[in-house]
What we know:
Blueprint: E1 18-29, E2 32-43, E3 47-51, H1 58-65, E4 73-78, E5 81-82, H2 87-93, E6 95-97, H3 110-117, H4 126-131, H5 134-154, H6 169-181, E7 187-191, H7 199-214, E8 218-222, H8 226-232, E9 235-240, E10 243-248, H9 250-254, H10 257-264, H11 274-295, H12 305-331, H13 335-338, H14 349-354
Helix pairs in contact: 3-6, 5-6
Keywords: ATP-binding, Nucleotide-binding
Organism: Streptomyces pratisoli
Protein name: ABC transporter ATP-binding protein
Amino acid sequence: MTTDTTTKTTAPTPTGETVLDARGVTMRFGGLTAVRSVDLTVNSGEIVGLIGPNGAGKTTFFNCLTGLYIPTEGEVRYKGTVLPPKSFKVTAAGIARTFQNIRLFNNMTVLENVLVGRHTRTKEGLWSALLRGPGFHKAEAASRERAMELLEFIGLAGKAEHLARNLPYGEQRKLEIARALASEPGLLLLDEPTAGMNPQETRAAEELIFAIRDQGIAVLVIEHDMRFIMNLCDRVAVLVQGEKLIEGDSATVQSDERVIAAYLGEPFEGEPGEAEAAEVAEAEAAAEAAAAAERGTDSTEEPTDATAEADDSSETEADDSADDEDENDTDAPDPAQDDAPEPTTDADNDADKASGSGKEND
Length: 362
Ligand SMILES: Nc1ncnc2c1ncn2[C@@H]1O[C@H](COP(=O)(O)OP(=O)(O)OP(=O)(O)O)[C@@H](O)[C@H]1O
Protein backbone atom coordinates (compact mmCIF):
# COMPACT_ATOMS: atom_id res chain seq x y z
CA MET A 1 0.00 0.00 0.00
CA THR A 2 1.92 3.01 -1.17
CA THR A 3 0.42 6.43 -1.45
CA ASP A 4 1.36 9.72 -2.90
CA THR A 5 1.51 12.22 -0.09
CA THR A 6 3.20 15.00 -2.00
CA THR A 7 -0.07 16.69 -2.94
CA LYS A 8 -1.42 16.99 0.57
CA THR A 9 -2.24 20.57 1.43
CA THR A 10 -1.18 21.98 4.75
CA ALA A 11 -3.80 20.83 7.20
CA PRO A 12 -4.49 22.91 10.27
CA THR A 13 -3.32 21.09 13.38
CA PRO A 14 -6.35 19.26 14.71
CA THR A 15 -6.39 20.79 18.14
CA GLY A 16 -10.06 21.77 18.00
CA GLU A 17 -12.94 20.69 20.15
CA THR A 18 -14.30 17.18 19.92
CA VAL A 19 -17.13 17.37 17.43
CA LEU A 20 -18.07 13.71 17.30
CA ASP A 21 -17.64 11.33 20.19
CA ALA A 22 -18.90 7.80 19.58
CA ARG A 23 -18.43 5.41 22.46
CA GLY A 24 -18.95 1.67 22.55
CA VAL A 25 -21.18 1.69 19.49
CA THR A 26 -22.52 -1.80 18.84
CA MET A 27 -25.08 -2.74 16.21
CA ARG A 28 -26.57 -6.21 16.05
CA PHE A 29 -28.92 -7.56 13.41
CA GLY A 30 -30.35 -10.70 14.97
CA GLY A 31 -27.36 -13.00 15.46
CA LEU A 32 -24.99 -10.83 13.41
CA THR A 33 -22.91 -8.18 15.15
CA ALA A 34 -22.16 -5.73 12.34
CA VAL A 35 -20.41 -3.19 14.61
CA ARG A 36 -18.87 -4.14 17.94
CA SER A 37 -18.04 -1.64 20.65
CA VAL A 38 -16.48 0.99 18.38
CA ASP A 39 -15.10 4.21 19.85
CA LEU A 40 -14.30 7.08 17.51
CA THR A 41 -13.78 10.80 17.92
CA VAL A 42 -13.52 13.50 15.28
CA ASN A 43 -12.21 16.93 16.21
CA SER A 44 -12.88 20.23 14.50
CA GLY A 45 -10.36 20.90 11.73
CA GLU A 46 -9.84 17.20 11.14
CA ILE A 47 -10.45 14.85 8.25
CA VAL A 48 -10.77 11.32 9.59
CA GLY A 49 -10.93 8.23 7.40
CA LEU A 50 -12.84 5.04 8.10
CA ILE A 51 -11.60 2.09 6.09
CA GLY A 52 -12.00 -1.66 6.13
CA PRO A 53 -12.76 -4.56 3.82
CA ASN A 54 -16.23 -5.08 2.36
CA GLY A 55 -18.78 -5.90 5.03
CA ALA A 56 -16.56 -4.57 7.84
CA GLY A 57 -19.42 -2.47 9.23
CA LYS A 58 -18.45 1.01 7.99
CA THR A 59 -21.82 2.02 6.57
CA THR A 60 -23.63 0.46 9.52
CA PHE A 61 -21.47 2.60 11.81
CA PHE A 62 -22.36 5.71 9.75
CA ASN A 63 -26.03 4.77 10.02
CA CYS A 64 -25.64 4.59 13.81
CA LEU A 65 -24.05 8.05 13.85
CA THR A 66 -26.79 9.63 11.76
CA GLY A 67 -29.83 8.19 13.51
CA LEU A 68 -30.77 5.87 10.66
CA TYR A 69 -30.06 2.96 13.00
CA ILE A 70 -30.48 2.98 16.74
CA PRO A 71 -27.31 1.34 18.09
CA THR A 72 -27.92 -1.77 20.14
CA GLU A 73 -25.38 -0.40 22.62
CA GLY A 74 -23.29 2.72 22.95
CA GLU A 75 -23.68 6.44 22.71
CA VAL A 76 -23.03 9.09 20.10
CA ARG A 77 -22.39 12.69 21.13
CA TYR A 78 -22.14 15.72 18.89
CA LYS A 79 -20.37 18.66 20.54
CA GLY A 80 -21.02 17.10 23.93
CA THR A 81 -24.73 16.40 23.49
CA VAL A 82 -26.12 12.90 23.05
CA LEU A 83 -27.74 12.68 19.62
CA PRO A 84 -31.42 11.84 19.29
CA PRO A 85 -32.03 8.64 17.28
CA LYS A 86 -33.82 10.40 14.40
CA SER A 87 -32.13 11.33 11.13
CA PHE A 88 -33.71 14.76 10.75
CA LYS A 89 -32.85 15.68 14.34
CA VAL A 90 -29.26 14.58 13.80
CA THR A 91 -29.11 16.78 10.69
CA ALA A 92 -30.62 19.68 12.61
CA ALA A 93 -28.02 19.14 15.36
CA GLY A 94 -25.22 19.63 12.80
CA ILE A 95 -24.29 16.32 11.15
CA ALA A 96 -24.84 15.96 7.41
CA ARG A 97 -24.04 13.01 5.21
CA THR A 98 -23.88 11.71 1.68
CA PHE A 99 -24.71 8.15 0.69
CA GLN A 100 -22.76 5.37 -0.96
CA ASN A 101 -25.25 5.42 -3.85
CA ILE A 102 -26.22 8.88 -4.99
CA ARG A 103 -29.59 10.07 -3.73
CA LEU A 104 -30.66 13.14 -5.68
CA PHE A 105 -34.04 14.34 -6.84
CA ASN A 106 -33.53 13.50 -10.50
CA ASN A 107 -36.33 15.64 -11.88
CA MET A 108 -35.49 18.70 -9.85
CA THR A 109 -32.92 21.27 -10.85
CA VAL A 110 -29.47 21.46 -9.36
CA LEU A 111 -30.49 24.56 -7.39
CA GLU A 112 -33.69 22.97 -6.12
CA ASN A 113 -31.73 19.95 -4.88
CA VAL A 114 -29.56 22.24 -2.78
CA LEU A 115 -32.61 24.15 -1.54
CA VAL A 116 -34.08 20.88 -0.30
CA GLY A 117 -30.98 20.50 1.85
CA ARG A 118 -31.70 23.83 3.52
CA HIS A 119 -35.02 22.88 5.05
CA THR A 120 -33.54 22.13 8.49
CA ARG A 121 -32.19 25.70 8.55
CA THR A 122 -35.35 27.44 7.35
CA LYS A 123 -37.45 28.87 10.14
CA GLU A 124 -40.47 29.79 8.05
CA GLY A 125 -43.38 27.49 8.87
CA LEU A 126 -46.13 25.90 6.78
CA TRP A 127 -48.56 28.84 7.01
CA SER A 128 -45.93 31.30 6.00
CA ALA A 129 -45.08 29.13 3.00
CA LEU A 130 -48.73 28.69 2.01
CA LEU A 131 -49.62 32.36 2.36
CA ARG A 132 -46.37 33.40 0.74
CA GLY A 133 -46.07 36.37 3.07
CA PRO A 134 -43.11 38.76 3.26
CA GLY A 135 -41.35 36.54 5.82
CA PHE A 136 -41.49 33.63 3.43
CA HIS A 137 -40.16 35.63 0.48
CA LYS A 138 -37.30 36.99 2.55
CA ALA A 139 -36.36 33.52 3.84
CA GLU A 140 -36.64 32.05 0.37
CA ALA A 141 -34.38 34.73 -1.10
CA ALA A 142 -31.80 34.12 1.64
CA SER A 143 -31.96 30.36 1.02
CA ARG A 144 -31.49 30.82 -2.72
CA GLU A 145 -28.55 33.11 -2.12
CA ARG A 146 -26.88 30.59 0.19
CA ALA A 147 -27.65 27.72 -2.22
CA MET A 148 -26.04 29.66 -5.07
CA GLU A 149 -22.99 30.35 -2.88
CA LEU A 150 -22.66 26.62 -2.29
CA LEU A 151 -23.02 25.86 -5.99
CA GLU A 152 -20.31 28.43 -6.65
CA PHE A 153 -18.16 26.72 -4.02
CA ILE A 154 -18.46 23.28 -5.64
CA GLY A 155 -18.21 24.69 -9.17
CA LEU A 156 -21.76 24.06 -10.35
CA ALA A 157 -23.23 27.58 -10.29
CA GLY A 158 -23.33 27.59 -14.09
CA LYS A 159 -25.59 24.55 -14.04
CA ALA A 160 -28.03 25.74 -11.36
CA GLU A 161 -31.04 25.37 -13.66
CA HIS A 162 -30.02 22.03 -15.18
CA LEU A 163 -31.95 18.95 -14.16
CA ALA A 164 -29.93 16.88 -11.70
CA ARG A 165 -30.33 13.77 -13.84
CA ASN A 166 -28.51 15.46 -16.73
CA LEU A 167 -25.33 16.03 -14.75
CA PRO A 168 -22.35 13.76 -15.35
CA TYR A 169 -21.71 11.27 -12.57
CA GLY A 170 -18.86 13.18 -10.90
CA GLU A 171 -20.96 16.36 -10.77
CA GLN A 172 -23.90 14.47 -9.25
CA ARG A 173 -21.59 13.39 -6.44
CA LYS A 174 -20.51 17.03 -5.96
CA LEU A 175 -24.14 18.13 -5.91
CA GLU A 176 -24.85 15.63 -3.14
CA ILE A 177 -22.07 17.24 -1.14
CA ALA A 178 -23.51 20.72 -1.78
CA ARG A 179 -26.91 19.55 -0.61
CA ALA A 180 -25.36 18.13 2.56
CA LEU A 181 -23.51 21.41 3.14
CA ALA A 182 -26.79 23.31 2.75
CA SER A 183 -27.80 22.15 6.22
CA GLU A 184 -24.76 24.08 7.55
CA PRO A 185 -23.17 21.09 9.31
CA GLY A 186 -20.30 21.08 11.77
CA LEU A 187 -19.52 17.51 10.73
CA LEU A 188 -19.83 16.03 7.26
CA LEU A 189 -19.95 12.26 6.77
CA LEU A 190 -19.03 11.09 3.29
CA ASP A 191 -19.76 7.48 2.33
CA GLU A 192 -17.48 6.51 -0.57
CA PRO A 193 -17.45 9.97 -2.20
CA THR A 194 -15.19 8.90 -5.07
CA ALA A 195 -16.90 5.63 -5.95
CA GLY A 196 -17.11 5.41 -9.75
CA MET A 197 -15.01 8.52 -10.32
CA ASN A 198 -12.12 8.76 -12.75
CA PRO A 199 -8.69 9.91 -11.45
CA GLN A 200 -9.31 13.56 -12.36
CA GLU A 201 -12.67 13.61 -10.61
CA THR A 202 -11.11 11.88 -7.59
CA ARG A 203 -8.39 14.54 -7.45
CA ALA A 204 -11.04 17.29 -7.64
CA ALA A 205 -13.04 15.59 -4.86
CA GLU A 206 -9.93 15.55 -2.71
CA GLU A 207 -9.43 19.30 -3.22
CA LEU A 208 -13.10 19.93 -2.46
CA ILE A 209 -12.87 18.02 0.82
CA PHE A 210 -9.77 19.97 1.86
CA ALA A 211 -11.67 23.18 1.07
CA ILE A 212 -14.62 22.00 3.17
CA ARG A 213 -12.27 21.25 6.07
CA ASP A 214 -10.72 24.70 5.65
CA GLN A 215 -14.19 26.19 6.16
CA GLY A 216 -14.18 24.70 9.68
CA ILE A 217 -16.25 21.62 8.95
CA ALA A 218 -14.93 18.35 10.36
CA VAL A 219 -15.07 15.44 7.93
CA LEU A 220 -15.41 11.70 8.46
CA VAL A 221 -15.00 9.77 5.24
CA ILE A 222 -15.44 6.12 4.22
CA GLU A 223 -13.50 5.16 1.15
CA HIS A 224 -11.96 2.09 -0.48
CA ASP A 225 -9.44 4.11 -2.51
CA MET A 226 -6.34 3.84 -0.30
CA ARG A 227 -4.31 6.46 -2.14
CA PHE A 228 -7.16 8.94 -1.75
CA ILE A 229 -7.72 8.21 1.93
CA MET A 230 -4.06 8.21 2.95
CA ASN A 231 -3.46 11.46 1.12
CA LEU A 232 -6.53 13.13 2.55
CA CYS A 233 -6.84 12.13 6.18
CA ASP A 234 -5.21 13.35 9.36
CA ARG A 235 -6.23 10.12 11.05
CA VAL A 236 -7.51 6.80 9.81
CA ALA A 237 -9.50 4.16 11.71
CA VAL A 238 -9.67 0.61 10.39
CA LEU A 239 -12.71 -1.59 10.92
CA VAL A 240 -12.44 -5.34 10.47
CA GLN A 241 -15.42 -7.59 11.10
CA GLY A 242 -17.18 -4.82 12.98
CA GLU A 243 -14.33 -4.04 15.35
CA LYS A 244 -11.85 -1.20 15.30
CA LEU A 245 -8.50 -2.81 14.57
CA ILE A 246 -6.26 0.24 14.67
CA GLU A 247 -6.41 4.03 14.48
CA GLY A 248 -3.58 6.37 13.64
CA ASP A 249 -1.98 8.59 11.03
CA SER A 250 -1.66 7.40 7.45
CA ALA A 251 1.91 6.16 7.84
CA THR A 252 1.11 4.13 10.94
CA VAL A 253 -1.99 2.55 9.46
CA GLN A 254 -0.61 1.66 6.06
CA SER A 255 2.48 0.00 7.51
CA ASP A 256 0.51 -2.06 10.03
CA GLU A 257 0.78 -5.73 9.11
CA ARG A 258 -2.68 -6.50 10.49
CA VAL A 259 -4.23 -3.92 8.14
CA ILE A 260 -2.36 -5.34 5.17
CA ALA A 261 -3.44 -8.86 6.16
CA ALA A 262 -7.05 -7.76 6.58
CA TYR A 263 -7.05 -6.31 3.07
CA LEU A 264 -5.32 -9.30 1.58
CA GLY A 265 -7.62 -11.65 3.44
CA GLU A 266 -4.82 -13.32 5.40
CA PRO A 267 -5.48 -14.25 9.04
CA PHE A 268 -3.33 -12.60 11.69
CA GLU A 269 -2.80 -13.09 15.39
CA GLY A 270 -5.57 -11.53 17.47
CA GLU A 271 -7.80 -10.91 14.44
CA PRO A 272 -11.35 -9.96 15.44
CA GLY A 273 -13.47 -13.08 15.15
CA GLU A 274 -10.43 -15.32 15.53
CA ALA A 275 -11.80 -16.91 18.70
CA GLU A 276 -15.06 -17.75 16.91
CA ALA A 277 -13.14 -19.18 13.93
CA ALA A 278 -11.04 -21.31 16.29
CA GLU A 279 -14.21 -22.61 17.97
CA VAL A 280 -15.66 -23.60 14.60
CA ALA A 281 -12.41 -25.30 13.55
CA GLU A 282 -12.32 -27.21 16.86
CA ALA A 283 -15.94 -28.35 16.47
CA GLU A 284 -15.27 -29.45 12.90
CA ALA A 285 -12.19 -31.43 13.95
CA ALA A 286 -14.16 -33.13 16.75
CA ALA A 287 -17.00 -34.03 14.35
CA GLU A 288 -14.51 -35.44 11.87
CA ALA A 289 -12.79 -37.51 14.57
CA ALA A 290 -16.16 -38.88 15.74
CA ALA A 291 -17.11 -39.80 12.18
CA ALA A 292 -13.76 -41.52 11.65
CA ALA A 293 -14.22 -43.50 14.90
CA GLU A 294 -17.69 -44.54 13.74
CA ARG A 295 -16.37 -45.77 10.38
CA GLY A 296 -13.89 -47.75 12.54
CA THR A 297 -12.89 -51.13 10.97
CA ASP A 298 -14.79 -50.43 7.70
CA SER A 299 -12.18 -47.95 6.71
CA THR A 300 -9.49 -50.68 6.77
CA GLU A 301 -11.41 -52.87 4.26
CA GLU A 302 -10.54 -52.74 0.59
CA PRO A 303 -13.41 -51.40 -1.46
CA THR A 304 -15.25 -54.18 -3.35
CA ASP A 305 -15.92 -54.00 -7.06
CA ALA A 306 -19.52 -53.25 -6.23
CA THR A 307 -18.59 -50.20 -4.17
CA ALA A 308 -16.17 -49.18 -6.84
CA GLU A 309 -19.01 -49.45 -9.35
CA ALA A 310 -21.29 -47.54 -7.04
CA ASP A 311 -18.61 -44.86 -6.77
CA ASP A 312 -18.37 -44.75 -10.55
CA SER A 313 -22.12 -44.46 -10.97
CA SER A 314 -22.44 -41.76 -8.36
CA GLU A 315 -19.69 -39.87 -10.13
CA THR A 316 -21.64 -40.20 -13.37
CA GLU A 317 -24.78 -38.95 -11.64
CA ALA A 318 -22.86 -36.05 -10.24
CA ASP A 319 -21.58 -35.28 -13.70
CA ASP A 320 -25.12 -35.53 -15.04
CA SER A 321 -26.48 -33.23 -12.42
CA ALA A 322 -23.66 -30.81 -13.16
CA ASP A 323 -24.75 -30.96 -16.78
CA ASP A 324 -28.32 -30.34 -15.69
CA GLU A 325 -27.15 -27.35 -13.78
CA ASP A 326 -25.39 -26.11 -16.87
CA GLU A 327 -28.62 -26.53 -18.80
CA ASN A 328 -30.52 -24.68 -16.14
CA ASP A 329 -27.98 -21.93 -16.34
CA THR A 330 -29.24 -21.07 -19.76
CA ASP A 331 -32.58 -20.15 -18.19
CA ALA A 332 -30.98 -18.17 -15.41
CA PRO A 333 -31.01 -14.39 -15.61
CA ASP A 334 -28.03 -12.98 -17.44
CA PRO A 335 -25.35 -12.46 -14.78
CA ALA A 336 -24.22 -9.42 -16.71
CA GLN A 337 -27.41 -7.78 -15.54
CA ASP A 338 -26.27 -8.14 -11.95
CA ASP A 339 -23.16 -6.24 -12.88
CA ALA A 340 -25.10 -3.47 -14.55
CA PRO A 341 -24.33 -0.05 -13.05
CA GLU A 342 -26.77 0.95 -10.37
CA PRO A 343 -29.17 3.78 -11.05
CA THR A 344 -27.71 6.96 -9.75
CA THR A 345 -30.56 7.82 -7.48
CA ASP A 346 -32.53 6.30 -4.69
CA ALA A 347 -31.72 2.70 -5.61
CA ASP A 348 -29.72 2.47 -2.48
CA ASN A 349 -28.71 -0.51 -0.42
CA ASP A 350 -29.01 1.70 2.59
CA ALA A 351 -32.71 2.02 2.03
CA ASP A 352 -32.94 -1.75 2.01
CA LYS A 353 -30.75 -1.97 5.04
CA ALA A 354 -32.85 0.69 6.74
CA SER A 355 -35.73 -1.74 6.68
CA GLY A 356 -33.67 -3.91 9.01
CA SER A 357 -34.26 -4.30 12.71
CA GLY A 358 -32.19 -1.29 13.67
CA LYS A 359 -34.06 1.33 11.70
CA GLU A 360 -35.32 4.38 13.51
CA ASN A 361 -38.95 4.22 14.47
CA ASP A 362 -40.51 7.25 12.92
N1 LIG B 1 -30.12 -3.95 7.98
C1 LIG B 1 -29.30 -4.99 8.04
N2 LIG B 1 -29.76 -6.22 8.38
C2 LIG B 1 -28.93 -7.28 8.47
N3 LIG B 1 -27.60 -7.21 8.24
C3 LIG B 1 -27.09 -6.03 7.89
C4 LIG B 1 -27.90 -4.86 7.78
N4 LIG B 1 -27.09 -3.83 7.43
C5 LIG B 1 -25.85 -4.34 7.32
N5 LIG B 1 -25.85 -5.65 7.59
C6 LIG B 1 -24.70 -6.55 7.61
O1 LIG B 1 -23.71 -5.95 8.45
C7 LIG B 1 -22.41 -6.20 7.94
C8 LIG B 1 -21.70 -4.88 7.73
O2 LIG B 1 -22.26 -4.25 6.58
P1 LIG B 1 -21.85 -2.78 6.12
O3 LIG B 1 -22.65 -2.45 4.91
O4 LIG B 1 -21.93 -1.86 7.26
O5 LIG B 1 -20.32 -3.00 5.73
P2 LIG B 1 -19.36 -1.98 4.97
O6 LIG B 1 -18.06 -2.02 5.70
O7 LIG B 1 -20.00 -0.67 4.81
O8 LIG B 1 -19.22 -2.73 3.58
P3 LIG B 1 -18.93 -2.11 2.11
O9 LIG B 1 -17.53 -1.60 2.13
O10 LIG B 1 -19.06 -3.30 1.22
O11 LIG B 1 -19.96 -1.06 1.87
C9 LIG B 1 -22.58 -7.02 6.67
O12 LIG B 1 -22.44 -8.37 7.01
C10 LIG B 1 -24.01 -6.70 6.26
O13 LIG B 1 -24.56 -7.76 5.53
